[in-house]
Amino acid sequence: MIRVENLTKHYGDVCAVNQISFDVQRGEILGLLGPNGAGKTTTLRMLTGFLKPTAGRIQIGDYSIEDQLLEIKKMIGYLPESAPLYHDMLVFDYLHFVADLRELGAGRRLDRIRVLGELCGIHEVMHQPIGELSKGYRQRVGLAHAMMNDPDVLVLDEPTSGLDPNQIVEIREIIRRIGKAKTVVFSTHILSEAEATCDRVVIIHRGKIAADSSTTRLKETLGGRSQIHMTLTGADAEAVRQELSGVAGVMALDLLEPVNGAVRLVLTCDAARDPRSELYHRIRATDWTLLEFHQETLKLEDIFRELTKEG
Amino acid sequence: MRHALSIGRKEFNAYFTAPIAYIVIAIFLLVTGWFFFSTFFLINQASLRNFFGLLPIIFAFVVPAVTMRLFAEEFHVGSYETLLTLPVDFSDVILGKFSAACAFIAAMLVPTLAYPVMVAALGTLDWGPVVGGYLGAVLMGAAFAAVGLFASALTRNQIIAFIIGLAICFSLTLVDQMAFFMPQALANTLSYLAADVHFQNVARGVVDTRDLIYFLSVCFIGLYATHLALSTRD
Q1: Probe site for chain A from B22, B70, B82, B83 (most A CB atoms < 10 A)
Q2: Which domains are delineated in chain A?
Q3: Chain A closest CA to B183's CA: distance in Å?
C-alpha cells in the first residue's frame, strides 16, 4: 500500500531523514518509533505530501507523490502532531468544513459527523470553540478530522499524546479496529503503545532506520538475552555466586541488596540456552530455600535503548 | 474551485467570529467619517470627493490589518499543515483566502453607502463618480489584499506581516509623490505605478481599461508571489 524508497530530507545542512526505505501492506498497523528529533515527524510530513523530499520516492496505492499528490491526499487521513486546528471555530463547524473539502455529499455529512462524534467521543463538545477544548478533546477532534472520509491510509503523529489513560486505551482500540481493514502508520515514543497496537515497528534513529520488523520478531532477534530474578534464604551470597555463575548459559550474575537476610540476585542469560532447569537442580542440591524464581525477556524498552544509544 | 469557495466561506466567517472584524470596521468608519465630515460642510459641495480622496491612504493601513492573519496565523498555530494535507492545492487556498479578504473589504464599505444617500438628500449628487469611486475602492481593496496576502505568507508573525503589507501598500499609494525628485522618464513610470493615481481616475467616474489593468495586474502579481512564497516554504 505504501512504498518508501531512499527517502531523504535536508533542512539546509542538517539531514533530518537519511535514505530510509520501508513498505507497509494494506491492513497493517505500522509504528514509527524513535527518540525526539529522530525524524519521525519529518517522515510523516513527507508521506502526507506536506513536505517535499530532497530525494527518494514515495508511492501510495497506485499513485506517486510527485505526480498525483491530490489523489494521494484524497486517500490519506492525517492527524499532525498536537492536532493544530482552527481555534476560533466550533467543533461542528470545523468538521463540516472538513467534510466539505473531502467532498462528502451534502446528505452524508451530518450522518458522518454524528458517527465520528460517537466514535471519537466528542459528541458533548460539538458546539464549543476548538480553542477552549482540553488537549485530549482536541486530539479526538483531530482524529475525527483524519477519519472524515473513511480514508484507506491513516497517518497519525503521536495520536495519544496528552490523553488520559482511559482515552489512550480508547484511541488504541480505535486504531486497532481501523487497522483491520485499512493501513495505519503512526508515530510514538511510548513503546508499550507500539507493542500493544502495532503489527510492525520501524525504529528511526538520527534519520536512519535502526530496526524494521514485527514486534515479536524484534524481541526474538534483538532481545537475545533474558534475565532471571531469584530470592534465596538460608544462603550465603558468596556461596550462591560460586555455585550458580558456572552454569552454562549464565552470562552475568549480579547480587542485589539483601532484604531481611534473603539473598537477591539477577542472572543475565543467553536466551538460546535456557539455564533454568540446571539452576533449579543446583539449588535443590543445597539446603537453601527458594522464595522467588522468574524470568523476564528483554522488553521493547531495552531494545529501543540499545538501538538508539548515543555514540 | 469548489474548494476555494469552501475555504473562502470559512475564512469570511472566521472574520466575524473573532472580534477583529468589528474592530477593523469600527476604526475604518470612524476614520473615514471623521475626515470626511470635518471638511464636508466647509467645502459646501454635494460630492464625495473628499471621502474617496482619503480612501487610498486609509486602505493602505486597514487592508494589511485585514489580511495579516490569513497565513501568518495558520503558520503560527500549525493549522496550515492540517489544511494543506486535505485534498486542496495552493491555488485553492490562495484564492479562497483572497476572495474572503475581498468580500470582507466590500462588507466594510457597505456602511459607507450611507454617505452618498445622505449627501444626495442634502443637494444634487452626481452619481457617476460615486459608482466609479466604489468600483475603484473594491478594485484597490482587492489589489492591496493580494499584497497583504503575500506579506502574510512570508512570516508566522502577524505584526511583521502587517508591517510588510503596510510598507508595500503605502509605497504603492504615495509613489507618485516622489516623482518630483526623479528624472522625467522615471517620473512617468512611477506615477503609472501609483495606486493613488489610478484610483482617482476611476473615482472621477472614468473607467479606463488602463486603470482596470493596473489593479488586476497588482492582484495577479500579489497572488503569484504568494504562490511562490508558499511553494518554496520548507
Answers
A1: B82
A2: 2-214 (3.40.50.300), 223-307 (3.30.70.980)
A3: 44
Q: Which residue of B has its CA nearest to A148?
A: B86
Q: Residue A71 and residue A26: Cα distance in Å, rounded?
A: 17
A80 contacts B81 by C-beta, under 8 angstroms: yes
The whole-angstrom separation of Cα A192 and Cα B79 is: 29
Chain B partners of A138 at a C-beta cutoff of 8 Å? none
With a CB cutoff of 8 Å and minimum separation 6, the contacts of A159 are A79, A139, A143, A171, A175, A186, A188
Q: Which residues of B touch A11 (CB under 8 A)?
A: 234
- Please report residues of B whose CB lies closer than 8 A to that of A78: 82, 85
Q: Given CB atoms, is A97 within the 8 Å cutoff of chain B?
A: yes
Contacts with A84 from chain B: Cβ below 8 Å: 77-82
- Nearest-neighbour CA in chain B from A250: distance (Å): 53
Number of alpha carbons in the 13 Å side-chain half-sphere of residue A225: 11
Assess contact for B194 and B172: CB atoms under 8 A. Answer: yes
pLDDT digit string (tens) for chain B, length 234 residues: 789 999 999 999 999 888 888 999 999 999 999 988 888 888 878 788 888 988 999 999 999 999 999 999 999 999 999 999 999 989 999 999 999 999 999 999 999 999 999 889 988 888 888 999 999 999 999 999 999 999 999 999 999 999 999 999 999 998 888 777 778 888 888 888 888 889 988 888 888 899 999 999 999 999 999 999 999 887
User: Nearest to residue A308, comparing CAs of A221, A215, A191, A160?
Assistant: A191
Distance of alpha carbon A286 from alpha carbon A229, whole angstroms: 18
Residue found by looking up cell 458533548 in the block:
A124
pTM: 0.85
Q: Does the beta-carbon distance from B7 to A101 stay under 8 Å?
A: yes
A94 CB-side CA count, 13 A: 31
Asked if B6's CB is within 8 angstroms of A101's CB, the reply is yes
As a whole number of angstroms, the longest Cα–Cα distance in chain A is: 80
* In chain B, where the domains are located: 2-231
Distance CA A289, CA A274 (A): 22
